[in-house]
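Document type: protein sequence-to-structure record

Subject area: structural biology

Format: plain text, a pair of labelled lines:
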Amino acid sequence: MNKLVMLGALLLALGLSGAAKAYDGTKCKEAGNCWEPKPGYPAQVAGSKYDPKHDPNELNKQAQSIKEMEARNAKRTETMAKTGKFVYDVEGQ
């Protein structure tokens, strides 16, 4: 029984060490820069059929919401300075 457990542990260790070395098909340009496109995928995505062509309005939504948040926070701090009380909903006033 003890030999069986030891043999199982040895096989598991050998299997795990081999799994890390399984893929060696990358061609690294430099250390840490090993990306390469899959066969049939273009090296440059821009202008290809894989280009997502994002809508600029969709990309600017977060920037717009941050501007609106900063405007609300400015109103809150202004109200706090005037009254001495923190009011969360400054739009209703």
In short: The two ends are 79 Å apart (CA to CA). The chain has a mean pLDDT of 81. Residues 49 and 59 are 20 Å apart (CA to CA). Helices lie at 2-19, 56-59, 61-83.
